[in-house]
Amino acid sequence: EPAERLRLAVMALRIRNEEAPTGFLTVSVGVTAHVPARDTRPQTLIEAADGALYAAKRRGRNTTVVDRDVRLAEAG
C-alpha cells in the first residue's frame, strides 16, 4: 500500500536526526477511507485520518495505521 511504501522510502533515505530514538528521520502515517453519503462532511474524513495517525504514534512511531473500517453511510 502507498502509505507503507512512503514510510519505508523515508527510512531508506537514512536522514540523520539526533533527536530520534533510531538516530534517523522516520514517519508515522495514518490513513482512512470512507464511502461518503450525501450529508458526509469533509471534517469527518479528516478526523478519522487524524485518529489513525495518533494510533500510529501510540504504537511507537515509525509505523503505518490504516483505518480499514470503511463506513457505508446510508444515503439520506
TrEMBL record:
GO biological process, one term: negative regulation of bacterial-type flagellum-dependent cell motility
Cellular component per GO, a single term: plasma membrane
Top EC class, one word: transferase
Reaction(s) catalysed (UniProt annotation): 2 GTP = 3',3'-c-di-GMP + 2 diphosphate
Domain GGDEF: 1-69
EC id: 2.7.7.65
NCBIfam families noted in UniProt: GGDEF
GO terms for MF: diguanylate cyclase activity
Name of the protein: diguanylate cyclase
